[in-house]
Specification:
This protein has helices at 3-6, 101-106, 127-135, 141-152, 161-167, 176-184, 188-199, 203-223, 231-238, 243-253, 258-264; strands spanning 8-13, 23-31, 37-41, 48-54, 57-60, 66-69, 72-76, 82-86, 90-97, 112-117, 280-281. It has 283 residues and is of the alpha+beta class. The longest helix has 21 residues, at 203-223. The radius of gyration is 19 Å and the shape is globular.
């Protein structure tokens, strides 16, 4: 471990069971080193609310534009990897909304996919500025998380039965849109529209991402026991047409090739293939 790494702290914080259908987890990072720490957010298909304390974190957009993050911002659903940097004395606390959790709180789902926005722009009052001010006075990170959870509780809408069934659908042999439409006695088109409205992405996007996560899981399993990857086997087992389609997905989601991912995969804590997850990569 280097001197700078020794002064960089990061941890994942679980949420109480009462909030597990709203948040997947919280993530905290604190850079007390003398160097700028650069990392990459990997795609999660979750919408994230980031609170920035201390020095401003820097987010790098797809077109290489740098955005300084002051206090708090919303981004997502996160469908592609993007880079960010923490200068010395910067802290971030990330709330990871799960499934329709963001919709239940804000009444929107896909509102900041391509560019971060101030969450106060989504509500009538500057309540997130006030929330940040309070959080900035709380030193213990777990107390900060608990304060956020208490803050959110009064504003959460009841979960719709359609959102619940779409989010919890786990039968790989059935089409979720057709199945939920049949269960709810609604048209497939209406369920498709609700999927986008409530979750922030389409069922087609979700299926593509799940296929990619399945490929990631296979690659990690094989890499842990062998030095040689059977790429054609990965293609066949994960439902890709050919190797070029697999490569295309890697470049779409991570902006790197499968072989480059394999080189760095030991540094990545990637999700299991059945659930999206918020993960970090440092080159």
């Amino acid at each position: 471990m280097t001197k700078n790494e020794d002064k960089y702290t990061s941890l994942t914080i679980a949420v109480p069971i009462d909030y597990e259908d709203v948040f997947s987890h919280f993530y905290y990072a604190d850079n007390k080193s003398s160097a700028i720490i650069s990392k990459t957010f990997l795609p999660s298909y979750q919408t994230i609310l980031i609170f920035n304390f201390g020095e401003k974190a820097i987010l790098n957009s797809k077109n290489s534009t740098e955005v300084a993050i002051d206090r708090c911002f919303v981004l997502g659903p996160v469908k592609q990897a993007f880079d960010y940097s923490l200068p010395p004395n910067a802290q971030i606390l990330v709330a990871n909304f799960k499934d329709d959790g963001f919709y239940r709180f804000f009444g929107h789902a896909a509102i900041a996919e391509h560019f971060p926005i101030n969450p106060d722009n989504l509500v009538d009052k500057n309540c997130f500025t006030a929330l940040w001010t309070t959080l900035n006075k709380i030193e213990d990170i777990h107390h900060r998380v608990n304060f956020i959870l208490d803050f959110c509780q009064p504003y959460l809408r009841d979960r719709s039965i359609i959102a619940e069934r779409l989010a919890n659908f786990d039968d790989e042999n059935l089409n979720p849109i057709k199945s939920v439409a049949s269960q709810q006695n609604q048209t497939e088109r209406n369920i498709q529209l609700n999927h986008k409205k409530l979750l922030g992405y389409t069922s087609k996007e979700a299926n593509r991402y799940q296929r990619f996560l399945k490929a990631i899981a296979f690659i990690q399993d094989i890499a842990s026991t062998s030095t040689k990857i059977d790429w054609f086997g990965i293609v066949n087992q994960c439902g890709y047409y050919d190797q070029s389609q697999l490569i295309h997905d890697f470049k779409h989601y991570l902006h790197i090739s499968p072989t480059k991912y394999l080189k760095f995969q030991q540094d990545i804590c990637m999700a299991k293939a059945d659930k999206p997850h918020f993960v970090f990569l440092q080159f």
